[in-house]
Amino acid sequence: MQNSTPKISILIPIYNVEKYLDRCLNSIKIQSFNDFEVIMINDGSTDKSGEIARSYADADKRFILVNQENIGMSKSRNKAYTMCHGEYVAFIDSDDYIAPDFLLNMYSAAQKSGADVTVCNYAINFEPECRVKKKKSRNLESGEFSKDEAVNLLLRDVKLRFYVWNKLWKKEFLDKTGMKFIDIYYEDIVFCTQAFLKINKLCSIDYTGNFYSRQTKTILEKSMPFKRIDDYISTVKYMREFLETDSSFEKFRKSFMHHAMHVYLSIPILVIQANHEAKEKINVFRTIKDDIKRLSYYMGKKYKLNYPNTVNKGDNQCTTNKLRK
User: Fold this and answer.
1) DSSP 190-213
2) How many angstroms from the chain centroid is the CA of residue 316?
3) What's the rounded mean pLDDT across residues 178-203?
4) Helix 253-273 and helix 227-245: axis angle, to 10°?
5) What's the whole-model pTM score?
6) Which of helix, strand or coil describes residue 134?
7) Burial tier of 135 (Cβ tally within 10 Å: 0-12, 13-18, 19+)
């Protein structure tokens, strides 16, 4: 009989991942720690993903399937969260998979430390040859971090990365802070930044628990529209707003600038990656100065700190969208 109050809730949005879904779900099913529930949101898949998910739900009562029309990953994660009952929450991508003792190690560390967030290392799985390369965050060893320490490390995206899936989140903390995913690309950056500014303690373990499917992410990146550029710039906006609301912008200014400068330097690369005709890319490059002006506002450099006329505070629309219409 399924436990109505499992220790861990695993939330999985699913969209057209029939090639990888069985691997993901089976890696959860065989966990050495078995007191969990899995909330699977089939987000309008048009392949056999729904059938695969249904087979797990039919065979194991811990797996719960919800079918819906396509609304996107962020909204699907939020919907799954409203249905979960666990003491802790894990967000797993449906094309990735986890080590057999991922839940056990993460739960044990979370319980021992009492941390709001517990994080581990991960490995990259290069498809289709299934070549696994361990991606150990630089100098991240087992230990505990205060809020200030964790925020500084996160914003620099070196020891602590902007991923939600290599972390175990205390549900009481998420409930209390009202954390939600916003509906943009790079939603993990925004979610993690806001959450870390509200934690009391973070725990890390020197253990590789997640396997990140690189090939599927590469395909996704190449097929993304120019909105991807807009949303990446918006992560800087959200980050600054969160820091100012927390009255800690000056405290974390250097770490904030690290992320902002990375975004600044990535804009041309993102334009090149976008799946559009060369002529349109050239037109976007011609308007890239408007993106730079927008970034300069958030970075507090060169331009006066007033929002450009094309952007309203709280709006994640980028100037390039308006110029391309």
Assistant:
1) HHHHHHHTT-SEEEEEEEEEEEEE
2) 18
3) 96
4) 170
5) 0.85
6) strand
7) middle
Give CA 84 to chain center in angstroms: 19
Task: Return the sign of the alpha-carbon dihedral for residues 272, 231, 147, 245.
Answer: positive
CA 297/CA 304 separation, integer angstroms: 7
Phi, psi (rounded to 5 degrees) for 301:
-120, 140
Residue 205, φ and ψ in degrees, nearest 5: -130, 135
Closest CA to 190 of 150, 227, 238, 229: 238
Q: Which among 279, 147, 280 has a CA at the least distance from the CA of 203?
A: 147
17 backbone dihedrals φ, ψ, rounded to 5°:
-130, 40
Distances, alpha carbon 182 to alpha carbons 73, 94, 179, in Å: 10, 19, 10
Packing angle of the helix pair 187-196, 227-245 (nearest 10 deg): 10
Rg (CA), the chain: 20
Q: Which of 233, 229, 183 is nearest to 324 (CA)?
A: 229
Give the confidence band of 283 by pLDDT, cuts at 50, 70, 90: low
Residue tagged 């799954």 (tokens):
80
Query: What is the per-residue pLDDT across 113-159, written as a single tens digit (0 to 9) for each?
Result: 999 999 999 988 776 555 555 555 555 778 999 999 999 999 998 88
Report the C-alpha gap between 28 and 92 in whole angstroms: 10
Around Cβ 159, how many Cβ atoms within 10 Å?
18
More confident position, 322 or 300? 300
Q: Model confidence over 7-66: pLDDT tens digits?
A: 999 999 999 999 999 999 999 999 999 999 999 999 999 999 999 999 999 999 999 999
Cβ-count burial 10-44 (b if 16+ within 10 Å, e if not): bbbbbbbbbbbbbbbbebbbebebeebbbbbbbbb
Question: 3-state secondary structure string, 68-132?
Answer: ECCCCHHHHHHHHHHHCCCCEEEECCCCCEECCCHHHHHHHHHHHHCCCEEEEEEEEEECCCCEE
